[in-house]
Write a structure and sequence with these properties.
single chain; five-stranded parallel β-sheet; Rossmann fold
């Protein structure tokens, strides 16, 4: 399993990648959409963890870019803005949102859930 982490908070995303690595999950990280796009041109990722609000290109827009380059890539959104209820209303992807600050075990559960759905041919 290879994960791409994209968040404009460098210390946060670097620490998150390290914590996932300690749990046996390979995670590359970048702090912007441009660098994420460059990585998906050279690496295959099973899943991307994207910050919803980033300068220039946010997570939702970045998801569309990544899917064009790697169809079927799964996505989990992270956000420090709003609440989970804001994302649950009318969204089929609501279960793939985590509020910051995140609990690493919650993230790993979401990663496994998303990849299980991919294996079963299900949604995002």
């Amino acid at each position: 399993m290879r994960i791409l982490l994209v968040d404009d908070e460098e210390e946060f995303v670097a620490t998150l990648a390290e914590r996932l690595s300690l749990r046996g999950i390979t995670a590359d990280w970048v702090t912007n959409a441009h660098d994420a796009e460059n990585l998906v041109n050279t690496q295959h990722y099973d899943l991307a963890v994207l910050d919803v609000k980033m300068p220039k290109v946010g997570g939702r827009e970045l998801k569309k870019i990544l899917e064009k380059k790697q169809p079927g890539i799964k996505t989990i959104y992270l956000t420090g803005h709003g609440s989970e209820e804001d994302y649950q209303a009318g969204s089929a992807e609501a279960e793939f949102y985590l509020m910051k600050p995140i609990n690493i075990n919650d993230l790993i559960r979401k990663i496994n859930d998303a990849l299980d759905r991919k294996a079963q041919g299900g949604g995002s």
